[in-house]
Amino acid sequence: MYGKAIGVILSMTEEIASQEIDFMEYGDTQINTIDMERGQRKDLIGKMPVGIAVVRGGNELYIEMVNREFLHAEGYDREELTGNTPFVEYLYRDDTGVFEDAIEVCRELRTTEEIELRIRTKSGGVCWELMRCRLYYYRDAVPYYILVSWNIDKRKNLEEELRLMEEQYSMLEEVTDEFPLEYDVAQRRFRVPRKYRGNGQAGTAGRRYMGYEEMLADICEEDRVAYARVLEAASRDVQTGSIDYRMNVAAPGEEPVYVWYRTIYRSIVGDNGQIIRIIGRSYDVSSDRKIQEELSEEAKRDPLTRLYNKVAASGEVERILKSEPEKTACAVPDRY
Fold it and tell me: Using CA atoms, how far apart are residues 164 and 325, in angstroms rounded to an integer?
C-alpha cells in the first residue's frame, strides 16, 4: 500500500548514501544546506504512516530519529526509542545476529536488505516486524542507516496456525482412516492429502496442492457432477453438509478402482466477508455402502421365492428397455 511512498524516501537517500560525507570537509554554508535537506527528510519521515527510524552505527547501534509508527505496536514511544538503549536490546535474542548481518551487508554492498525480526514488546511479549534497511549516510566516518518497518504479527500468527493445522492433518491421517478436505475457493485448488499421495496418483509427489479439474478427474464419472455442484454451492453460500462419492485409488496406468468416501464439509468466511475455503474431513465408507446395497437388494426380493418383487421387477424391466429398446423383449408373469 505504501510501497511507492517508501520508494520515494529510499530514493531520496541514494545520492547521499553513495558517498561518505565527512562534515569536516565542508564549509558552514554547505553544512547548513545539508542539514536543511536532512531536516526536510525528517519532516517527511515523521508524517509517514509506516515505521521509519534512522540508526547510528558503530560498535553499538542507536536510534537517532524515529517517527511515531516505529515499533508503536510493541508499545514504545519516540522518547524511549531515542534514549541510550542499543537497538539490539529491543530484538528477540535469537534474531540479533540476523539483524547485524543485514546491517553489515547494507554497509558493504550499499544494498537494501529485507528481514523478518521478532521484537520484544514493552509488556514482555514478542511481535513480528518486516524491516527494510539500507545505508543512509556517513557523518564523521560513522555510518547511519534508515529502517522501514511493517508489523506482520498477524500474518506470522496465521502462518503458525497453518503450520499447526498441517501437523493436525498429518496426525489425523496417521492415526485414523480419515483425510482432510481443504479447497481454496479463489485459487480453485485442493490441498493434496498424504493418504491421497500414498494412493499413487500421478504427479502428486512433493506437491501441496492440485488443480480443480485434476482432482475431479479421480472422482467416478457418475458422481462427478454432484461433487462439483456441492463445491460450487458451498463456494457461493455458507453451507455445512456431507456427500458420498466414489474416488479412484488405483495406481497410475492401472484399471480404476473406486472406493466410496463420505466428506463432511463446511464453508469458511474470510475477513473480507467472502468464502475463502471449504474444509472438512473424508473417510472410507465402503463397508457402510456395501451393507446398504445388500439391504437394498434384499428389499427388492420376495423372502420366499427370492425373485424380484413387483416394484423391483418393474424397475428392472424399465432399465433394460431403456438400455436396449430394440433388442429386448420380456414377459411379466400374471402374479405381478
Answer: 58
